[in-house]
């Protein structure tokens, strides 16, 4: 499977486009710049089958309806944040006077922890709350990678001072759901560079002694 990374918007949120050899694609966290993202997808002649959301903060959902409508594909997320897509006060865009309010229609499907199949893709969904109550991580065992949103970063962790955030819950999620993966799994976060489980065990100062 191929993974393309597009940092989008003012906060440079990583949008991931995962595609197979047939050109079928999953779009994860289309946070902004929908027209630019569409051009990149079309240039590669990919065929999106779904949008997955790691969580519903505004910088991860800004282009959801644009991409959903252009490709006529469904949106999947955790039910804990069902109201966040349409509510700027919950998704955080309402906090900033210099940013437009972000509002989308409701998700098409809610997903829980477990093995999920969407089109030709099968992967494990892990509920990893702490940064937000409905945060999800998507684990692709055959490719030894996990897309984790704002739960875990290279030598850092997600912030917990937003609505529904909690530091101990976040650390529990990282320890039980992510650090339990094999050391060679690549971790693709919502911002910044990718990393590996082994490197975070050895070098992440927020996890030392946990």
Automatic annotation (TrEMBL):
Residues 12-191 form the Metallo-beta-lactamase domain. CDD domains: metallo-hydrolase-like_MBL-fold. Keywords: Hydrolase, Metal-binding, Zinc. SMART domains: Lactamase_B. Pfam families: Lactamase_B. This is MBL fold metallo-hydrolase. Its cofactor is Zn(2+).
